[in-house]
C-alpha cells in the first residue's frame, strides 16, 4: 500500500513515475502461485487420464458389457453388441474421426505438461498421399498421439489439406467403446487393409502415421538413447511404392526421456521373456517408471515432464509400382534411412543433444 501511495504522490508532483510501474514492483500474490500449481496438476491429470484410458478402458468396457448381459440391462448390451457387429469393419475403412474430440481442451493440458511441439520443415501437397514414419516409439508414443491424434499442436493449421491417421494395434479395435474413442481421434488399425483403404479409397491429402519400430523398439527406450528399429522394417516402404505415396521421416526428440526403463541385455532370461510375451500379446512388457502425481522425486506412472519436439521432415517422392521388385524396395528404404539420419543430424543440437550424438539404426 505504501508503494502505491508513493507512486501516486509522484504522479501528482509531475514526475515520470506511474502507479502501473509501482504495481509491477509488488510481490506476486499467493493466488497466482496457486493458479500455477493448479494448472500443473491439471496437466498431470490430463496425461494420467490418457494413460488409464489406454491401459484400462478396453478391458473394463469388455467386462462391463459381459456383466450387463447378466442384469436387467441386458437389452442395452444386446443393442450395442448388434451395433458392434454391424460396425465391425469401420475402423478398417477410415474410421469415424471427430473434430470435436480432437479439439478437446484436455489435450492442450496434455500438450503443455511435457511440453510437446510440432515442427514443420516442408510444405505437403494436399494432392498427394503420405506415409509418415514416426521414430522413436518410446514407451507410450506420447508425441505421436498428441501431434497426430489430436489438434493440440495445430497439425491441421500447419499442414492445411492434410488429414493425419495414426495407426495402432488391431486388438484395440476389438474392444467395445474403446474402439469408438480411438476412432474419434482419427486413429485406425495398423493392418494392410486399413492402410490400403486410407491411401487408395479415401481421396488425397491423407497421411498415415506408422510408428515403424513398434513394440520391439520400446524395449530399447530410455533417456539418452537415440536408437531406432528400422534396418529390417521394409513393409511400409513396399506399401508406399504400391500406393505411390510419398515417404516422410518424422523424429521426436525427447520421446525416450519421459520414462526410465530397465533394459535387459540380449540373451538374458528377462529379455527372452519380454520378446516371447511381445509375440503373444502384441506389445512389449517393459519394466519402467515415471514419477508420482504429487512429486517428481517419487516413482509412479506419470511420465517425467521432459520436452518432446516432433520434427516432420522432407517428403521423399515415391513412384507407384503395384509389384515393386525387392531391389526397388531396398533402394527407397536406404533413401528413407538416409533422410531420417539427415533430419536427426540437422536438428539434434537445437533440441538438447550434442553434436557428437548419432542415431543408431538397428
Automatic annotation (TrEMBL):
Q: Which Pfam families match?
A: DAGAT (PF03982)
Q: A single GO CC term, please? A: endoplasmic reticulum membrane
Main location per UniProt? cytoplasm
Q: Which residues cross the membrane?
A: 44-67
Q: Which residues form a coiled coil?
A: none
* CDD domains the UniProt entry points to: LPLAT_MGAT-like
Q: What InterPro entries does UniProt report for this protein, alphabetically?
A: DAGAT (IPR007130)
Record's keyword terms, sorted: Acyltransferase, Cytoplasm, Endoplasmic reticulum, Glycerol metabolism, Lipid biosynthesis, Lipid droplet, Lipid metabolism, Membrane, Transferase, Transmembrane, Transmembrane helix
Q: Tell me how this protein sits in the membrane.
A: Multi-pass membrane protein
Q: In what pathway does it function?
A: Lipid metabolism; Glycerolipid metabolism; triacylglycerol biosynthesis
Localization recorded for this chain is: Cytoplasm, Perinuclear region; Endoplasmic reticulum membrane; Lipid droplet
**Catalytic reactions on record:** an acyl-CoA + a 1,2-diacyl-sn-glycerol = a triacyl-sn-glycerol + CoA; 2,3-di-(9Z)-octadecenoyl-sn-glycerol + (9Z)-octadecenoyl-CoA = 1,2,3-tri-(9Z-octadecenoyl)-glycerol + CoA; 1-(9Z-octadecenoyl)-glycerol + (9Z)-octadecenoyl-CoA = 1,2-di-(9Z-octadecenoyl)-glycerol + CoA; 1,2-di-(9Z-octadecenoyl)-sn-glycerol + hexadecanoyl-CoA = 1,2-di-(9Z)-octadecenoyl-3-hexadecanoyl-sn-glycerol + CoA
**EC number(s) per UniProt?**
2.3.1.-
Molecular-function GO terms, alphabetical: diacylglycerol O-acyltransferase activity; retinol O-fatty-acyltransferase activity
One of its GO biological process terms is: triglyceride biosynthetic process
- What does the sequence similarity comment in the record state about its family? Belongs to the diacylglycerol acyltransferase family.
Family matches, as PANTHER family:
DIACYLGLYCEROL O-ACYLTRANSFERASE, DIACYLGLYCEROL O-ACYLTRANSFERASE 2
Give the protein's recorded name. Acyltransferase
Task: Give the species.
Answer: Esox lucius
User: Its gene?
Assistant: DGAT2
